[in-house]
């Protein structure tokens, strides 16, 4: 099993970008998505250089919040 983590500054970036995204997302005011209500997926992709990650909304938009200065 893998454990992935994100840095505090990335959490703040994600919160800011999600607020902006909510203004244009057609599913932003929907109460529920899927079986358990998840509207975001967090995608972590391990590579030989480090881990790439982003969030993906149920609408299909990818929200990049990774600080590439910390990559690798």
Describe this structure in words.
Helices cover 21% and strands 22% of the residues. It has 72 residues and is an alpha+beta fold. Strands 1-2-3 form a three-stranded antiparallel β-sheet. A hairpin with a 4-residue loop joins strand 1 and strand 2. The longest helix is centred in the N-terminal third of the chain and has 15 residues. 4% of the residues are buried.
Number of strands: 3
Helix content: 10-25%
Largest sheet: 3 strands, antiparallel
Amino-to-carboxy terminus distance: 20 Å
Strand content: 15-25%
The tally of domains stands at: 1
What is the H/E order?
HEEE
- Based on CA inertia axes, which overall geometry fits? globular
Radius of gyration: 13 Å
User: What is the count of helical runs?
Assistant: 1
> Which strand order spans the largest sheet, edge to edge or round the barrel?
1-2-3
Structural class: alpha+beta
Report the average pLDDT across residues: 85
List low-pLDDT spans. none
Quick description:
The chain has one helix spanning 8-22; strands at 40-46, 51-57, 62-63.
Task: List its traits.
72 residues; alpha+beta; three-stranded antiparallel sheet; 1 helix; 3 strands; globular
């Amino acid at each position: 099993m893998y454990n992935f983590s994100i840095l505090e500054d990335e959490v703040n970036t994600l919160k800011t970008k999600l607020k902006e995204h909510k203004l244009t997302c057609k599913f932003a005011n929907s109460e529920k998505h899927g079986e358990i209500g998840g509207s975001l997926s967090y995608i972590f992709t391990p590579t030989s250089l480090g881990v790439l990650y982003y969030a993906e909304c149920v609408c299909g938009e990818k929200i990049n919040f990774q600080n590439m200065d910390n990559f690798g």
